[in-house]
Amino acid sequence: MNTETIGVAPWMALPETQAVIAALEARGFPGCARFVGGCVRNTLMGKPIDDIDIATTLTPDQVIEALGEAGLRAIPTGVDHGTVTAISKGRPYEITTLRRDVSTDGRRAVVSFTQDWDQDAERRDFRFNALYVDIQGRLYDPTGEGVNDAREGRVVFVGDPMTRIREDYLRILRFFRFHAWYGKGEADQKALAACKALKGMVEGRAAERTQKELLKLLAAEDPRGALRLMAATSVLSSILPAVKSLARFEGLMAIETEQLFENDPELRLAALIPDDPKVAQEMAERLRLSNALKERLVEAVGKSPRIVSWMSPRETRRAVYALGLRTFSDRVKLAWAAASRTATTPQWRGLLALGESWTPPAFPLTGEEILKAGVPKGPMVGEVMREVEIWWIDQDFIEDKFSAIERLKAVAQGMAF
Fold first, then answer.
1. Which of 33, 49, 190, 414 has the fewest Cβ atoms surrounding its Cβ within 10 A?
2. Spacing of C-alpha 253 from chain mean position
């Protein structure tokens, strides 16, 4: 096992972090608990860390006992798989006993606990995720290449890629996700070949995990390279058969970069879908997306009203009123991405600016006023109100209630009750 030191990173020196390690080592021995995974990888890469994960030779029961003795809260989040979550000063630490795979079926592994750090490393997905560091900052690199991979931006499977993928077929998506976030230069050719060979096994996997991986991938600063590789290996068509082209997605990414728009993984997903609400609905159901995201995608790819760069201010206000600001903004960006003509950039930006600066007024009439005009209770009230609202919109949202009431009277008189 190759070792070197990275020093004590700021997150390692936190009192709450020190308290967790101290509790585990008091129950076991110095070095029985080491940081692992993303916190180590990102520290080597100079990137911010999110979660702090810990691997230990202690069993889950011993971990729970150790935390309790130290006055720390222990949550048995996944005891059967060796995982306990410690809460120290409000911060969660996921602590997992060293494991080895007993059997795998492409979805979940049956594991047994071990005292062997190398065995634990052998079951992990990528070499830069199989790095461990102790509380003194001493780094342990069982594969001998994880440190170099992290520093050079290489995403390489631990051992044989085909074997790693067969253990969990969603590692195919994890490969592209990690390449989008951390990869530099060309992707590992052995990994790509394995992903292509086993792409058919991704279909039908747990939809929730699939959509989670996909949205995380799309949240990367620039996932274009990863999406191109997914398309080239036919992995993309395996999980999203409706995607026929990356052109609009590429256009949206170019706009985001040039205009400094905030990364929006949900809109990026919409950019991959053809302009067909039915297709969007089917894809959302296939991935089991939340109702809110499903609604956003379906509305984003709708065709009416048509969004074009030469819309007048009046037409723009009508569209914002009909769609709502978020859907209007989504459709403008998608239409802009599809057009991909830089000469029209000022017009597209103007549409977005007008939409953001204009607050749609409230319709000036109420149901009570419709009734006062002689319209009987029932469905006719809604019909009359809609008729007057259409007139009001045609008048560019006229701020004149008297005119609206006069129009109401005219509509009411012209309808048979």
1. 414
2. 16
Q: How many CA atoms lie within 13 A of 154 on its CB side?
A: 15
Taking only Cα atoms into account, the Rg of the chain, rounded to an integer number of angstroms, comes to 28
The CA-atom distances, in angstroms, between 385 and each of 167, 239, 293 are 61, 45, 31
Arithmetic mean of pLDDT, 271-290: 95
175 burial level (CB within 10 Å; 0-12, 13-18, 19+):
buried
- DSSP character for 14? S
| Percentage of the chain exceeding pLDDT 70 | 96
pLDDT score, position 3: 60
Distance CA 334, CA 303 (A): 11
CATH number of this structure's domain 1-152: 3.30.460.10
List, in sequence order, every residue forming a beta bridge with 83; answer none if it has no partner. Answer: 78, 96
Q: How far apart are CA 82 and CA 407, in angstroms?
A: 71
d(CA 239, CA 286): 9
Three-state SS at 123: coil
Alpha-carbon gap, residue 274 to 351, rounded angstroms: 23
Q: How many helices (H) and strands (E) does the chain have?
A: 22, 10
Domain parsing of the chain, residue ranges: 1-152, 305-357, 367-413
Cα(398)–Cα(205) distance, integer angstroms: 54
Which residues pair with residue 33 across a beta bridge? Answer: 56
Work out the number of other CB atoms within 10 angstroms of the CB of residue 171.
24
Contact 199, 233 (CB under 8 A): yes
Q: Are 120 and 114 in contact (CB under 8 A)?
A: yes
> Can the peptide bond before residue 15 be classed as cis, meaning omega within 30 degrees of 0?
no
How is residue 9 written in tokens? 């990173």
